Amino acid sequence: MFFLKELPSQQMVEGYAKRFSVKDPTAVQGALTMMRDTSLLLRELEGYFSKHGTSQLRFLVMIVIDREPQRDSLLASEIAERIDVSRPVMTRTLKSMVEDELIAMETNSSDGRAKCVALTKSGENFLQEILPGYFKAISNFMKELNK
Amino acid sequence: MFFLKELPSQQMVEGYAKRFSVKDPTAVQGALTMMRDTSLLLRELEGYFSKHGTSQLRFLVMIVIDREPQRDSLLASEIAERIDVSRPVMTRTLKSMVEDELIAMETNSSDGRAKCVALTKSGENFLQEILPGYFKAISNFMKELNK
DNA sequence: ACAATATAGTTATCATGGTAACTATGTTAA
DNA sequence: TTAACATAGTTACCATGATAACTATATTGT
């Protein structure tokens, strides 16, 4: 993700808001700030993931399986839905994660179309390995932000 | 951009924070919320831009040129730097924007390597056309968010 | 029962982000 | 002056997001 490093000034946004009869310039300024901050945070996190040979998408896949109460697997479509990513991207990502033995997939016994996706033991271990650094990275970023 | 639609619960984040000795679980929760909200807002904005045959990147290019005080053009590298995007992506994007006559480029008179990028009249008009809807979209999104 | 429809996943293809390596131009220092 | 280095932009290539169209399976309504 990318965004403006320097946001428009408050006066500028207020000027636009007046011209376009937008009622809440402060909310707009907040949204722009949010997008910029997220863009910077995502750059940090991408760097962290990449250093560990993974990606935000792979990480989220592992997280949503791991955090599921009562079940130890999810359908591919459920994962895609929870992460808000298209199914073709999910297909490709899951395939590569199976190759790397982070997850295991098998056809659902009660629906021949669906695939159950579970974490392997090494997938679980890997997730536990990278989680602390993920939280630390976010925590550090937020600390810098509020300076 | 994509992200978890359902964030981990506060208890869950606090549990992680404790295990990984992260001091400020609230800040982490805030960061996750920020990423989710931004991801949803970006989806809205992408839809808006796409409806108008443009993209967030093209929009930001026009914005940073338009808002520049004193000057009516910027170097390609200045634009890339301000939007935090790589130079090869800038090259490609500017090329297509020249084809669509939104911008004009010419070699800088004082540095044969550099290219000056200016908005054309129709680029300026187009920017003014889409700006109100952009602000409205952000404003509406933020209104929904604070419900 | 079975035709029509819906759903899960995949394939093909495109769009758009990135890095590495290159060319051309400019700057600096021996 | 000119060799070494720095900088602007481009090219080549890869990674990863999307949509459309497809296959296979399941469900629904007559």
TrEMBL record, chains A, B:
GO molecular function, one term: DNA-binding transcription factor activity
Gene3D superfamilies found in the cross-reference section: Winged helix-like DNA-binding domain superfamily/Winged helix DNA-binding domain
UniProt domain HTH marR-type: residue ranges: 31-147
GO biological process, one term: response to stress
Pfam family, any one: MarR_2
InterPro entries assigned to the protein according to its UniProt record, in alphabetical order: HTH_MarR-typ (IPR000835), MarR/SlyA-like (IPR039422), WH-like_DNA-bd_sf (IPR036388), WH_DNA-bd_sf (IPR036390)
Record's protein name: MarR family transcriptional regulator
